[in-house]
Structure formats: structure tokens, C-alpha cells
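New to this. Help decode the following:
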Amino acid sequence: MNQDLKIIVDFIVLAVLYIFFYNRWQERGRAKLIVNTLMYLYVSLVLYITLLPVITSLPYIFNHPYIPMNMTPFVDYIHGRGDALRQIILNVIMIIPFGFLLPIVKKQSMFSCIYKTFLFSLGIELLQPLINGLRSSDITDVITNTIGGLLGYLFYLLFKPVIRRMLSGLK
């Protein structure tokens, strides 16, 4: 099966899941629906970049060796390998929206937001080599993603008054 078709299967499942949540979110008001939809679209995009295709890969997850996570932080950067600095910056940027949207979706303390960002990143990193034998996982990605979540939360704090006004206008 071609790669695009495999990803379409996952997006169909994501669309069905969205329909399932849509009614719940809509009942809570227009603001909740918009914020939850934004978070759902964002997480779907992150999954597309990091994990997809998942469903069509499930029958083959044990057909390749699982390569454990690289546990030496910033080893690629330290040794000047490839585009390590670019990857670090992109990992930080990719998760900023998560840290920004999470406290809007549900009130969070900074610690809670950082912890959930860490778990989100760790989950992705542990699943990548399981789903696709060509992917690897790296502690640097977990660290930089968590930093991105923290930056997102700080942006949320900075824009909190504006966000509240915008959301109160949507009710």
C-alpha cells in the first residue's frame, strides 16, 4: 500500500474520533468547541509529522528490532552531526503550541503543563521506533520538546488577558 493511502487511513480514524468528541465540545459552548478543535488539529498535525502511518503499521511492529532511546542528551549537537541545531530548534518550536493551548483547553499549573508536555513527547519518542523500524528516539527530543511546552505556557501567561477576552466574546 502506498504511503499516502496509509496516512489517509489514519486521518479517517482521526476524523471519526473528532466527530465523536464534537458533540461533547459543542455542548460546552462555542469557545470550548473552537479551543478543543484547535488542540485536536494541532495534535493530529504532530502525529502526522512524528508517527503516521500507525494503523497500517500495526501488523508489522514486531517485524523489526526495537532500537532503545539514545539517552545521551545533545550528543549529535556536541559532535557536530548533521543538522542537530536545526532539529533542536524545530523540536522546541513544534511543541510550543501544545504548551500554549493546553492551559486554554483545561486550566493547568506550569508544573502540570510541563509534566504533560514531557509525557506527550516521551510517548511519541517511545512509539516512533516501534511503529517504524527506520525511526529512532532520542532524549534530546524529549528535552527540547519539554522546553517548547514551557515556552508555550509562558506565551499563554503573557497573552492570558487577551485570550480571556477573545473566549468570552465567543460564548
Observations:
- The chain has one domain: 3-170.
